[in-house]
Amino acid sequence: MHHISDEQRRIRLGRRHLLAPSVRTASPVSVTDALVALHATDAATVFLSACARMSEASVVAVERALYEDVSLVRQLSMRNTLFVVSQELAPYVDASNARAVAAKERRTFLKHLADDGNGLDERWLAGTERKILAALAAHGPLTGSELSAAVAGLRTKITVFPGKKYEGVQGVASRVIRILAAEGRIRRDRPRGSWTSSQFRWTTSEPLPFEEPAQAQAELARRWLRSYGPATEADLKWWTGWALGPVRKSLAAVGAEEVRLDGGAVGWILPKDLEPEPALEPWAALLPALDPSAMGWADRSFHLPAGHRKALFDRSGNIGPTVWWNGEIVGGWAQRADGEPVWRLLSDIGRDATAVVEAEASRLSQWVGQARITPRFRTPLERELTA
Fold this sequence. Notes:
alpha+beta, four-stranded antiparallel sheet, three-stranded mixed sheet
């Protein structure tokens, strides 16, 4: 069996994830396709992930792709998580993941309506949704608060989990809007405030082209292997959120080949992708919380020393902002209240490498400007650095 070392995996990561200066790109869409998808749970992560890989970091270019060209779209998809993908890939993500997520969201909400016992049902929900779409068509884009003012049904409150010790009363607005967005009937438009804000306005959306789920899963697996391979079945299963059956079928559909990884594990790679890649120039990167290069695998041991996990992850397994050197996570960073980026190395990388990290921190500071970034999921090191 062909062997691919951890060193080769780190070289591939640096090149294919566009992290070395010589392989950066001018386009946020090219960045997104290189990574398959950008994590979007935290609004700032999309911009930080894209600009870290752009030859000229540009908030305006990312905003244009998200809100004007709509060449980048947000989808509630893999692992029931919000991602940004290219318009080209969106139909495949929709068929392979997002449709099922949206259907589950609708089923769950309809059950809450039935449990509430006040006669709210599927007909009521459909009527409310029509009024939301009409309001957006006539007056959009609108914030959630503005939609609630325009559509009386969104001001409804229901009792969830009645009779349980965790029974509670909730408004329906966020749930109904979330369902429409998950189904691709509305989309997030420019937020209130700066690019770091998650208080989005909402607008209507065009339906995506239809793709068959099996073919869509194969296409998503192919692109993921190109960006993240070699990787194990467990890695693909974790990243997609699929059951093992679809994982194995999609690997077979793309003709994936087995390779041996350091430590003896079996990985998978695309056909004709076995040749070793030449080393890159030395490179450093400051990547945001939940960046795809840190979150792309279940087993990250080839680029993440085990001793660094406690400082860099929260209790739910979300990674915070990270410092990279030549394909390995060597520390973490944060932004202080005065805007200064501050970082700490957890590995000894030497004086010359430290100077490269300092230069990258300066580049980050220049394009971020007056924006202030606080990750949604805070980690021990990030909290310590900002204290």
